[in-house]
């Protein structure tokens, strides 16, 4: 029997969206965003981690972001650095120690959004190392369900973990909605063909049960949370999506921001932005100097960088960024795996 793949266009009609999609900066979205924005980031971060820091229990109705991964595709430490007989990579040597903040898996965040039917866990990207991220942080933070996955783009470090969602759909919940742009869904038809068209699966095989929702570059709603795509370039001619929810803007893979995207970043309170390496940009990612220039242009209240490679030493770069708070008033720091920040959306 041929079973039609579970696909539907999303949203089917903007008239069904319970907010004005052309007015993302209405007063509702301009309200103060973070409960902790009055403090500089350096003091706030002490209270947010289960990564060896002093943790703080957040109230059950508190929205939050958990950083599932903050590193490049190959992960930090690199195996090649640890096997190099010269052992000359200090960051990877540090990252090899459990709990070290230089230890980074593929970029991903979990948005925990309390609603009338409980807290929804909305994941942005499930890359190659998703299993390892979930293994580390889901039990630690008491996270059970995966209520939606939103995809930034179709590189392996963003979608490589979709197969691992089988553990949830076999043992926790019947299915998981996936929100993905059409171009990336077309890629998945090849990379994850058996998840897109379940008719090819041998009867009895228990793969992930995913419901694909095709998104455009217009706002959409996930479990009552308004999500605004932030289209960016991730290499010449290759599109990736950042996402805005409330006054939080998340852009994990970017080499250039089109002019038409800047208005969508207006009044951003917390910016989470790609910063690959300390010295320069690559063809596909912002380096730290360009990322800082964008922070000066976008003027968020607070910025956390993500997607760092092994040339970015957590303590050293953060020391440098701390000085920018004093000299320029820029509240900018590196994120790290397991970082947990309260938000208001
Ligand atoms: Zn290294
Ligand atoms: Zn990518």
Blueprint (SSEs and pairs):
Blueprint: E1 7-9, H1 27-30, H2 41-44, E2 64-69, H3 79-83, H4 90-95, E3 108-115, E4 118-124, H5 130-141, E5 148-150, H6 156-159, H7 166-171, E6 176-181, H8 182-191, H9 193-196, E7 210-215, E8 220-222, E9 225-233, E10 239-245, E11 248-251, E12 270-274, H10 288-298, E13 302-306, H11 314-328, E14 332-334, E15 340-342
Parallel strand pairs: 1-7, 4-5, 5-6, 6-7, 11-12, 12-13, 13-14
Antiparallel strand pairs: 2-3, 2-15, 3-4, 8-9, 9-10, 10-11
Bound molecules: zinc ion (2 copies).
Residues 77-78, 81, 89, 91-92, 310 line the site of one zinc ion.
Q: What does this 3D model show about the protein?
A:
This protein has one domain: Metallo-beta-lactamase, Chain A (4-Layer Sandwich), CATH 3.60.15. Helices cover 23% and strands 23% of the residues. It has helices at 27-30, 41-44, 79-83, 90-95, 130-141, 156-159, 166-171, 182-191, 193-196, 288-298, 314-328, and strands at 7-9, 64-69, 108-115, 118-124, 148-150, 176-181, 210-215, 220-222, 225-233, 239-245, 248-251, 270-274, 302-306, 332-334, 340-342. Strands 1-7-6-5-4-3-2-15 form an eight-stranded mixed beta sheet. It has a seven-stranded mixed beta sheet with strand order 8-9-10-11-12-13-14. Strand 4 (118-124), helix 5 and strand 5 (148-150) form a beta-alpha-beta unit. The chain is globular, with a radius of gyration of 19 Å. The structure holds zinc ion (2 copies). The site of one zinc ion has 4 residues, from loops.
């Amino acid at each position: 029997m041929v079973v039609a793949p579970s696909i539907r266009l999303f949203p089917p009609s903007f008239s069904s969206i319970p907010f004005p999609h052309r007015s993302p900066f209405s007063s509702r979205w301009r309200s103060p965003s973070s409960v902790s924005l009055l403090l500089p980031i350096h003091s706030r971060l002490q209270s947010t981690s289960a990564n060896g820091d002093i943790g703080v229990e957040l109230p059950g109705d508190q929205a939050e972001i958990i950083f599932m991964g903050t590193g490049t595709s190959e992960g930090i430490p690199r195996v090649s650095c640890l096997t190099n007989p010269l052992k000359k990579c200090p960051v990877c040597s540090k990252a090899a120690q459990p709990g070290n903040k230089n230890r980074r898996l593929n970029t991903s965040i979990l948005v925990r959004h309390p609603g009338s039917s409980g807290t929804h866990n909305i994941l942005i990207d499930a890359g190659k190392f998703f299993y390892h991220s979930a293994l580390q942080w889901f039990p630690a933070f008491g996270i059970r369900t995966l209520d939606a996955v939103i995809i930034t783009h179709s590189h392996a470090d963003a979608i490589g973990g979709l197969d691992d969602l089988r553990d949830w759909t076999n043992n926790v919940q019947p299915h998981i909605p996936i929100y993905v742009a059409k171009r990336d869904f077309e890629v998945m038809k090849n990379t994850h063909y058996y998840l897109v068209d379940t008719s090819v699966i041998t009867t009895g095989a228990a793969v992930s049960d995913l419901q694909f929702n095709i998104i455009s570059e217009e706002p959409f709603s996930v479990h009552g949370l308004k999500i605004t795509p932030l289209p960016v370039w991730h290499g010449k001619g290759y599109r990736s999506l950042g996402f805005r929810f409330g006054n939080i803007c998340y852009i994990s893979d970017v080499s250039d921001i089109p002019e038409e995207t800047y208005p969508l970043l207006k009044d951003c309170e917390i910016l989470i932005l790609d910063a690959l390496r300390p010295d320069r940009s690559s063809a596909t990612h912002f380096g730290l100097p360009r990322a800082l220039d964008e922070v000066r242009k976008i003027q968020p209240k607070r910025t956390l960088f993500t997607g760092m490679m092994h040339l970015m030493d957590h303590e050293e770069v953060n020391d440098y960024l701390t000085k920018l708070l004093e000299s320029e008033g820029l509240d900018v720091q590196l994120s790290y795996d397991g970082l947990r920040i309260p938000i208001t959306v």
